[in-house]
Write a structure and sequence with these properties.
By secondary structure, the chain is α/β, with parallel strands linked by helices. The chain is about 40% helix and about 15% strand. The chain is built from 12 helices and 10 strands. The longest helix has 17 residues. The protein is globular.
């Protein structure tokens, strides 16, 4: 059974990459399709990232921007340079495509973004190019061991579509509601199955590694980790952190605010991103805590 290190670009998953060699090291990047969101990105770095993504994800458009702190691009390249093992880059559909299909903004009630943009991308890589199941290591430390209990080892995969064009069947309102209408006029339904794709391994829990050990390890290595990791507009983040991110990465945050206006919904329950932008900065707030996503692919 192959071993896989899932790398998010934060210090914890980077520690696993550096200290626990695996057969496959993979990094999934959340992508934005609007070039305006990446207008401040270094063009050479964008091309380097695109070259990596095209190796396994050429069925997706070229990379132009990310919703994560853009420093993540340099982080992954520098990690690879330090350790000397190839990191495979993957991506799923971009934000705009996902929002258009789901017709919703991801929030605490609709937590589909990590599954679509990270988990599915990694699953497809392993399913298409390697052998399942794999042993997968995620960045869960000993001081957050409760996260390991929530790991799901199966992935719901669409196997085929069934077409429905019988007029009598389509008269049934329950049936019609379960079907999707194709632009050419016929109706169809996806068929799914649960695939066992990973067995969780948690070396940091087994070796009792906590946040202190991670910080001590990286303090003299010179790797530029993001101050606030993962998607800058993530609904898991505290409003104060989102407010801070308007200063750190304005193209991403204003892009996200526009998506709220277009979709007519918000990432946070109580405030839109534009309302959060107008908040004052809480000086005693502990910034840079990353997201609190429970999926395991957005861990710091």
């Amino acid at each position: 059974m192959l071993t896989v290190n899932s790398i998010s670009g934060g210090g914890t998953s980077g520690y696993i990459y550096a200290n626990y060699p695996a057969d496959i090291d993979v990094f999934a990047l959340c992508c934005i399709e609007d070039r305006n969101a990446g207008r401040d990105l270094d063009k050479k770095l964008v091309q380097m990232a695109n070259d990596r993504l095209q190796k396994y994800c050429s069925h997706w458009p070229e990379f132009v921007a990310t919703s994560e702190d853009p420093i993540i691009l340099k982080t992954i390249f520098d990690l690879e340079q330090m350790v000397g093992r190839e990191i495979i880059w993957v991506r799923g559909m971009g934000w705009e495509t996902m929002l258009r299909i789901k017709r919703a903004i991801p929030n605490m009630d609709k937590r589909f973004c990590t599954t679509i943009m990270k988990m599915q991308a990694i699953f497809e890589l392993l399913y298409m190019h390697f052998e399942l199941p794999v042993k997968m290591r995620l960045g869960y430390r000993w001081d957050e061991m409760e996260r390991a209990d929530r790991l799901r080892e199966t992935f719901k995969m669409s196997t085929h579509c069934e077409i429905y064009d019988d007029p009598e069947e389509l008269k049934n309102p329950v049936m019609r509601k379960a079907l999707t209408k194709h632009p050419k006029g016929f109706y169809y339904m996806h068929r799914w199955k649960d695939v066992l794709w990973r067995i969780g391994e948690f070396p940091l829990i087994e070796d009792k590694i906590i946040h202190y050990h991670i910080k001590e390890y990286w303090k003299d290595k010179g790797i530029p980790f993001p101050v606030d990791s993962n998607c800058q507009n993530c609904f898991w983040k505290d409003p104060q952190q989102l407010r801070k991110n308007f200063e750190a990465n304005p193209p991403i945050m204003y892009w996200a605010a526009i998506q709220e206006e277009v979709m007519g919904n918000t990432f946070k329950e109580d405030n839109s991103l534009l309302e959060i932008r107008n908040m004052g900065i809480q000086l005693d707030f502990f910034f840079g805590t990353g997201s609190g996503c429970k999926a395991g692919f957005c861990t710091d």
